[in-house]
């Protein structure tokens, strides 16, 4: 939690109760989630939380670089996941059913190398790997 406190302070933005709760939800989940999903969980904790506020807060998080938007393959819905801290990972995505598996990042050493080679300050990277999941392979084979 410390890190997010610092980020908000740095930007002079108040860390409201709802923002804290949203952050906690994202921290505890390994898959990208929709605003609706977050809203449903929040309703149990914070009575007054509205979907529009959730969207607004998610945008604030995005502007601060705390979360990033990924779009789900099967229905083009916007999903959100943390982009800071130990939660950094990549996705293996099934193009048939849209299932996503989190993958560990293989690129940390490479970023350091690249920094040395190019003098760039490396900020971020993103990789998705696409394929067909075992379930979907089984389904097509049975037909
Ligand atoms: Zn699949
Ligand atoms: Zn990575």
Automatic annotation (TrEMBL):
<feature type="binding site">
    <location>
        <position position="94"/>
    </location>
    <ligand>
        <name>Zn(2+)</name>
    </ligand>
</feature>
<feature type="binding site">
    <location>
        <position position="88"/>
    </location>
    <ligand>
        <name>Fe cation</name>
    </ligand>
</feature>
<dbReference type="GO" id="GO:0045892">
    <property type="term" value="P:negative regulation of DNA-templated transcription"/>
</dbReference>
<dbReference type="InterPro" id="IPR043135">
    <property type="entry name" value="Fur_C"/>
</dbReference>
<keyword id="KW-0238">DNA-binding</keyword>
<feature type="binding site">
    <location>
        <position position="136"/>
    </location>
    <ligand>
        <name>Zn(2+)</name>
    </ligand>
</feature>
<dbReference type="InterPro" id="IPR036390">
    <property type="entry name" value="WH_DNA-bd_sf"/>
</dbReference>
<keyword id="KW-0805">Transcription regulation</keyword>
<comment type="similarity">
    <text>Belongs to the Fur family.</text>
</comment>
<dbReference type="GO" id="GO:0003700">
    <property type="term" value="F:DNA-binding transcription factor activity"/>
</dbReference>
<feature type="binding site">
    <location>
        <position position="133"/>
    </location>
    <ligand>
        <name>Zn(2+)</name>
    </ligand>
</feature>
<dbReference type="GO" id="GO:0008270">
    <property type="term" value="F:zinc ion binding"/>
</dbReference>
<dbReference type="GO" id="GO:1900376">
    <property type="term" value="P:regulation of secondary metabolite biosynthetic process"/>
</dbReference>
<protein>
    <submittedName>
        <fullName>Transcriptional repressor</fullName>
    </submittedName>
</protein>
<feature type="binding site">
    <location>
        <position position="97"/>
    </location>
    <ligand>
        <name>Zn(2+)</name>
    </ligand>
</feature>
<dbReference type="GO" id="GO:0000976">
    <property type="term" value="F:transcription cis-regulatory region binding"/>
</dbReference>
<feature type="binding site">
    <location>
        <position position="108"/>
    </location>
    <ligand>
        <name>Fe cation</name>
    </ligand>
</feature>
<dbReference type="Pfam" id="PF01475">
    <property type="entry name" value="FUR"/>
</dbReference>
<keyword id="KW-0479">Metal-binding</keyword>
<dbReference type="InterPro" id="IPR036388">
    <property type="entry name" value="WH-like_DNA-bd_sf"/>
</dbReference>
<dbReference type="InterPro" id="IPR002481">
    <property type="entry name" value="FUR"/>
</dbReference>
<keyword id="KW-0804">Transcription</keyword>
<keyword id="KW-0862">Zinc</keyword>
<keyword id="KW-0678">Repressor</keyword>
<feature type="binding site">
    <location>
        <position position="125"/>
    </location>
    <ligand>
        <name>Fe cation</name>
    </ligand>
</feature>
<keyword id="KW-0408">Iron</keyword>
């Amino acid at each position: 939690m410390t890190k997010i406190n610092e980020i908000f302070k740095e930007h002079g933005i108040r860390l409201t109760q709802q923002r804290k709760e949203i952050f906690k939800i994202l921290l505890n989940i390994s898959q990208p989630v929709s605003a609706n999903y977050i809203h449903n969980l929040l309703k149990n904790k914070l009575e007054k939380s509205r979907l529009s506020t959730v969207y607004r807060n998610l945008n604030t998080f995005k502007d601060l670089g705390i979360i990033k938007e990924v779009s789900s393959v099967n229905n083009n819905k916007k999903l959100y996941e943390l982009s800071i801290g130990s939660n950094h990972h990549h996705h293996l995505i099934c193009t048939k059913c849209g299932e996503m598996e989190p993958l560990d990042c293989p690129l940390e050493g490479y970023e350091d190398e690249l920094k040395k080679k190019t003098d760039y300050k490396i900020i971020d990277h993103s990789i998705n790997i696409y394929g067909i999941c075992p379930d979907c392979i089984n389904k097509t084979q049975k037909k």
